[in-house]
Amino acid sequence: MNNGPVLGHEEEVGTRTTFRLFYPESVFTDSSHNDPNTIAIFVAFKKNDLDWMLKLLVNGRIFLKNFWKKPALKLIYKPHQIRILDPFLIRTTAYELLHFRKNLPKFKKQKHPTMGIIAIVLAFHICHEVHIAGFKYNFSDLMSPLHYYGNATMSSMKKNTNHNVAAEQVFLNYITEKNFVINLTED
Known about the structure:
Blueprint: H1 10-13, E1 19-22, E2 39-42, H2 47-57, E3 82-84, H3 87-97, H4 115-126, E4 131-132, H5 154-159, H6 165-177, E5 182-183
Parallel strand pairs: 1-2, 2-3, 4-5
């Protein structure tokens, strides 16, 4: 998902990436991370994301406004590798599976599912069996790593206002208890 590297982390994540989900601010730009056999699934959260993808594909001018950090200005994926995730899947995940409120007051920012939860729901649609690993937030130790790579800690996720981690944990517990997924890192 996103820019989670495989290179240098094969022990933790394996050597093959069949699908990689990404959005403008999270896509790799270093071509050493490109696997020509990977299908890159573009997840658009806002209209600007779609504009960004179109401009990249036609070598147009990219406007950098309305992104939470600078998006990629080039793609390491070839057009034939790219698919666009149906936004219906994101809506279904947010409102029916995570039970986010649909109509918020204008001063409240709408939450959206993490890429990990979106990936699990996509996997339900295309796989016979779904295994997950690393989907537990350890908020008892805010300095513990958020991912298997990088320096981000749990404190950054706790401060994050874009996601509802509590709702995601309820969902993860439910799908694990009902054996909809096999949790490879369960305690």
